[in-house]
Amino acid sequence: MFLNKIKLFLVISICLIFFFLTYNDVKSYEIKIIDGDTIHLNGKKIRFSGIDTPELKQTCKKNDKIIYCGIKAKKLLIDKIDNQKVNCIEEGKDQYKRTLAECFVNDLSLSSYLVKKGYAFAYRKYSKKFIKDEDYARVNNLGMWSMNFEFPWDYRRKN
Q1: Is the alpha carbon torsion for 2, 7, 10, 11 positive or negative?
Q2: Domain 33-158 belongs to what architecture?
Q3: DSSP-based three-state secondary structure for 108
Q4: CB 142 within 8 A of CB 116
């Protein structure tokens, strides 16, 4: 009888330890998507390096219809991440002290994904890494390449 109580206590203790370790891991992972190329991951502001997406207020035009291409880029990122874990490889800091990084979901580069879908551009001023992805989207008339648009850096300069 006494041995059974000890065994029960050990089993319950092991289960509680496992629960707290698992709970802590889940709780320590927090993501907030700010726009198409900026996220907050575990409290750290991360700007995707090498790409530029339209600003949230930025619009495009397709068949005389206004498209909120900045919001569309953010939604595309939200849908791609879904509830999956994001891993980032840090590459430095930008002029605004944001962490520059390339981020991945299941080994898929989110930057490459956004550029190939046509809702981000290779930010040639800082990197040549995503030019082939941009060429693919442009040639296939994907995303913003099927619309009348302004490059994000031009939009920011004017607004």
Answers
A1: negative
A2: Beta Barrel (2.40)
A3: strand
A4: yes
